[in-house]
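for the writeup, i need someone to sanity check this before i put it in the appendix. the sequnce is what the collaborator sent (i think, or maybe the updated version? ugh). structure was predicted straight from it, no edits. if anything looks off just tell me and ill rerun, i have time this weekend
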Amino acid sequence: MNTFNHPMRALTWTLTSSLLGVMCLASTAMATDFEAVEARLATLVPDPSSVIINETPVDGLLEVRIGGDVIYMTSDGQHLLQGRLIDLETRADLTDAAKSEMRADQLANIDPSTFISFGPDDAEHRLMVFTDPDCGFCRRLHEQVEGYIDQGIQVNYLAFPRAGEGSATYDKLVSVWCAEDQHEAMDIAKTGGNVPEATCDNPVSEHYQLGQLMGVTGTPALMTFSGTLIPGYVPPDQLKSRLDQEASTR
């Protein structure tokens, strides 16, 4: 499953036959606008499956959600734009808000029991971390995992082998998730040690594909359960401040 960082990659995703059924059309003119966009996308998408079209605050500009990406099209279906839509009055990133909503929906389908969690379930903040044991900053984050816990942050690891499925890192993550003591195995992996080989029914591939779908391109990738993506390592105290600020705006 590919991450959609380019409009033509995004357009490999497709339209559902019930697309118009999920749209709230205020008028015949608006119906025509949506139909024009649908018709244009149908010429670009080889195998229709899933697209959601929404209005934006900009007259004549529609938001198109395809897979894990957000693009924009003019309501006449003539022009496609890729980029960020910013409300200059509020300074709100409308594109990021749309992507966060999409990620939150996707996260609702994953089983939290597949995470390897450090910290109590009643922590003030619960954070997902897509991780690769051979990543330097992932190791740095794990070295401070007690610091995150002290800041009231539960760290929930998901597997994201940057080298892809079938790589040595992928196999290492499988061994971590299949270990009798997952926490000990994660500690060993994050210090460069050799994790005893193990296999089982595991979520490593599912986590990796989910991360790609949600726009993860590197590790560590931190993500809140509301869908906010925080790429890269953030020290415990700074992360606590950032999570507090996000929580206050909900």
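Residues 28-44 form the longest helix (17 residues). The CA atoms of residues 29 and 35 lie 10 Å apart.
thx in advance!!
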